[in-house]
């Protein structure tokens, strides 16, 4: 199936037609399910609130939850790295299993509520101070359940926002990115005033809010295909990988996104060591990239709808290649600030292209499963490999030159999405 044949905006075709078309192009895809569109007029506002609450929690989770585990639960750096690494491997297996379960539910809120509830339960248990072995298992589980929310949330955001809603998708996703910044910077300020337990309290409150807001979403009942068991749904999800364009999309974008790992793990340390900037300044410099991402999504998402998803992915790959190559030159603060603006390309354009490409390829009905396959089978292993390589390079004293390896990841992803773009051009689509 060529992306050039498909609409790339926020809306999609009739779900039944999408599934039938996907079935013709991907062996083993389930037929016969039909979705009932939501009737609530404020669904876009509600799902935007859900996204903002999740990313406000996620902004704290990525940067500060590891700090809390070390300071409050006695994890060493090695133990923490092991838990996160094993969780990445776990997502490869748990993701397809979760999506197959979700495809059998009649309420599209079910996977969001399940994963959010599991995350809340694990966080509450960790707060009770269990023995280290239990704490390690809980941290491992949290890393899987919390990351698992992303695929179903992004599918809901695409499904419930479109050209006729307020907010539209670009604004909704941009607000979610700003919520990520608020969680990242806000929790850092709270830690300075109240100590590291502010991390746990922030996560507990935002995840509780996430559960409440998800409950308030429209139920979106789905009439599922009759007689399709769990094993068939799992096989159907894995069969998506046999669609060539889908495989090119997820592995190409997965590599480009994985190229951010050296920056995520060691970026602020390298900036402080090289320039002598304060930790607070490094935090704001990091936030500048996410603000650039939000600005692009909120200000230009509608304009970007005129381009095919593969075109956006190529632009993102070129931006990533340029960003990491120049970062390897150990630039000063002024150039660093300019390079942070390239986050709008290396992450946002790649992300936007992937999300719209997946939705256009699979329709509303199958997008959550396709998103999970993307996260579990492409992004998770690519990030694990990039993280492992990043650690080796940092320990070997490569410093800023370690970004050259990330440029290699981005270049490999760029090749794959360029092949995807070329397949679309060859079938007569517009660039």
UniProtKB/TrEMBL annotation:
It is a multi-pass membrane protein. The keyword DNA-binding does not apply. It comes from the Bacteria. Its main location: membrane. One of its GO terms (molecular function) is lactose:proton symporter activity. Pfam families: MFS_1_like. Residues 52-396 form the Major facilitator superfamily associated domain. InterPro entries: HcaT-like (IPR026032), MFS_assoc_dom (IPR024989), MFS_trans_sf (IPR036259). It is found in: Cell inner membrane. The chain crosses the membrane at residues 43-65, 77-98, 110-128, 134-158, 170-191, 197-219, 239-259, 271-297, 309-326, 332-352, 373-394, 400-422. Keywords: Cell inner membrane, Cell membrane, Membrane, Transmembrane, Transmembrane helix, Transport. GO terms for cellular component: plasma membrane. The keyword Disulfide bond does not apply. PANTHER family: 3-PHENYLPROPIONIC ACID TRANSPORTER-RELATED, BLL5896 PROTEIN. This is Major facilitator superfamily associated domain-containing protein.
